[in-house]
Write a structure and sequence with these properties.
about 25% strand; eight-stranded mixed beta sheet; Rossmann fold; 8 strands; 9 helices; alpha/beta
């Protein structure tokens, strides 16, 4: 695969931001988030991008692997929970304002696909549900969508509007997700399996179409995700 390293200064965080890109801008642009504590190279390091090489080399997808700042936001116990969420919101502005725009320009696409595993699936899902006009597909690999434990019991409007379990049940316009191809992948050994089922139940209650894939002999680890993602890409 053609691999590119990209670094730029983003005004949303007032710092440099890094990303790996696999492909030449052809096909569906897929933004692939790292898991907890992961950097922009994590999906490469654990072989997830290599597992999708056939799709990249065939010009069907281009994969964009942005950095994460979870250690500065959700996991940063040195700042107030409200500041953790403000930092997270700034990260999402980088993704939507910088990464999405770059990927769409390169691929001449109106929307991008998003994907992640574990907490990376939270980032993918939350950004997709908050910005449905910008997202064509959402692929969750063993998603962990409950962020309440990060805020020490504190709760405010910012946390509410970044908690899919809270805001999705109250949405009054589920039609805006109708164009989105949503895949929730989990398995019988997945320790966050209940979270995929909980999100699926909410989507069902709102009439939002999606595919809940509960796989046998599948758990919460890279070896399973390397099998799951290429299969889901074959569906889209």
């Amino acid at each position: 695969m053609n691999e590119r390293y990209i670094k730029w200064h983003t005004p949303y965080l007032d710092r440099d931001f890094e990303m790996l890109v696999f492909g030449d801008g052809h096909g569906i642009p897929l933004v692939l988030f790292p898991t907890s504590f992961g950097r922009y190279s994590q999906n490469k390091d654990f072989g997830l991008t290599d597992a999708c090489a056939a799709y990249v080399d065939a010009g069907k997808i281009t994969i964009y692997c942005p950095d994460s700042i979870d250690l500065d936001s959700f996991y940063n116990k040195g700042i107030h929970p409200a500041d953790r969420m403000r930092t997270h919101n700034a990260f999402e502005r980088v993704i939507v304002g910088d990464v999405f725009d770059f990927a769409r320009r390169e691929s001449s696409a109106a929307r991008v696909a998003v994907c992640g595993a574990s907490l990376g699936a939270y980032h993918a899902a939350n950004i997709a549900f908050r910005n449905p006009d910008a997202v064509s597909h959402l692929i969750s690999l063993s998603g962990a969508f409950d962020i309440s434990s990060f805020f020490d019991g504190y709760h405010d409007e910012n946390i509410y509007f970044n908690s899919p379990y809270e805001y999705l049940p109250n949405t009054t316009d589920p039609w805006k997700y109708g164009h989105m191809g949503i895949i929730l992948g989990t398995g019988e050994w997945d320790n966050t399996r209940h979270e995929s089922y909980r999100l699926s139940e909410i989507l069902n209650s709102k009439g939002i179409k999606h595919f809940l894939d509960d796989r046998k002999w599948c758990g919460h680890d890279w070896s399973y995700w390397r099998d799951m993602l290429p299969y889901y890409l074959s569906l889209i």
